[in-house]
Structure formats: structure tokens, C-alpha cells
Amino acid sequence: MIVGIIDLVSFLFVISMTLAVSISSGLSRAQSALAEALPEIGVIGMYLGLIMMLQNMDDPNAVFPALAVACLPILYSSIIGFVVQNLGSTSEHHQTVAVSKLRYLSVILVLVTLYLCTRGELRWFLDPKTVSLTTLFIVVGIGLQRRQGELDPVKVRALFPTIGLIIGGMGIVLALSNFSNPKAIGPAMAIGFLAVLYTSLIRLLWIIIQPGVSNDQESAVGVSCAPWRTLMAGLFIWLMILSFADV
């Protein structure tokens, strides 16, 4: 049974992303930085796995093992988050200039990890429609904030999970409206998956490059979206199971 929750690629993905955040923030504030980043790491890993699963649905018998593997990044990041929350001190110290320079090496580590985990199939993760729609929502959100006064980085960063949820919700609606055509469900789910993946990745990179914005500050201007993004993935999975059952 324990073998079923072990996947080397998923484990290395979470460890590599966790290492990137720790390097960028420095050991003095790694605990608080990981508290912000681990939900994003788990969501990114899960949606990466789900998108790769969508591209390999010719064999129905292989779908559910792939689905189990896709859920493992959430499990691994949650375990690491549990350990991080219960070890060490939450006090933060002044960061040195050397730590600041390492943030860009961490960005490279994140991008290389993503490339290796996608097995070089970047075309699966680049959809012009989803990119355009996500960009449009970001521009509109920033524009609305600018009209209200000075642009607040805390509010801007809090935008991304919400935007992912909005476009993901649109994907669910599209999947439901095309339920009589199973071939249309996959593309609709891909739009929702990619939107959440894009916005979570942007937020993770922002945490690495500018770790000064705390999770508490963002909570004051928004809600935690990680549980809702996980729930959205569950809804997509439910739709997929129903489509297999020919309901």
C-alpha cells in the first residue's frame, strides 16, 4: 500500500521547488516563505500531472493510476508544510545582499524543474487562448486597481489565484455545456487546468523574486484560494469519470 504513494518524479519536483524557495528567501525566513509557497507548489504539481494525463487518455486503464500520481504533489507539499510549521522559529532576520542575488538562480531552478517534469512536451502547456484570457484578466485587474489609486503589490499578487479560479470556472461551465460531446470535455478541462497553472506559477515566481510580501498581508485583501483550486480539480475529475461512464 505504501508503494502507491511513492513517485520519484513527483517527490523530486516538490523537493526542487521547495529548495528554490528556501535558497531565494535565505534560511532566516525560509519558514515563512515556504508557508506561502508550498500551497502553490502542490497546486502546480497537481495541475501539471492532470494536463499530462489529459494528453494520454487513449488507454482508459492508465488514466486512474496517472490521476493518483497527479495528486501526489499535493500530498508531498502538505507533509513538508506540516513539518515546516512545527519546526524552527517564525522570527525573521535581516536578509543580506547575497541572498537577494540567489533569487534569480532559484527562478532558473524552478523553470528547469518544470521543463524536466513536462518531459520536453511544452506544447501541451502553451495554449494561446488560455494565455490571452489569463493576460486579459490580469491587465483588467491591474487597471481597476490603478483607477483606485496607487498600485499595491500585495493586492496585485492576491489577484492571481482568483483569476485562475475564474477562468477555471469558465472551463467547468464549458465542460458541462458540452457534456453530450465527450471529445469537447478534454479541451475545456485543459483551459481550466492551464489557467490555474499559469496563475499559480506567476505567484510562485513572485514569492521567489520578492518574498517580502507575507501571506498574512495577502489574507487581509483576499481569501485563501488553494483549497478552492483543489476542489476545482476534483470537479474536473468527477466530470471526466462521468464521461467515461457514458452518463
Describe it.
The structure is a single chain. This protein has 247 residues and is an all-alpha fold. The protein has one domain (2-244). It has 9 helices and no strands. The protein has helices at 8-25, 30-54, 60-86, 97-117, 128-147, 153-177, 182-209, 215-219, 226-244. The radius of gyration is 18 Å and the shape is globular.
What profile does the largest beta sheet have? Answer: none
**Strand element count:** 0
Shape field: globular
The oligomeric state of the chains shown is single chain
* Domain module tally: 1
Q: What percentage of residues falls in helices of 4 or more residues?
A: over 70%
Cα-atom radius of gyration: 18 Å
What is the strand content?
Answer: under 5%
Structural class comes to mainly alpha
Low-confidence stretches: 92-99, 219-223
* Sequence of secondary-structure elements: HHHHHHHHH
User: What's the overall average pLDDT, rounded?
Assistant: 78
Distance between the termini: 31 Å
Number of helices: 9
Question: How are the elements arranged and paired?
Answer:
Layout: H1 8-25, H2 30-54, H3 60-86, H4 97-117, H5 128-147, H6 153-177, H7 182-209, H8 215-219, H9 226-244
Short description:
The chain is an all-alpha fold and 247 residues long.
Summary keywords:
247 residues, mainly alpha, 9 helices, 76% helix, globular
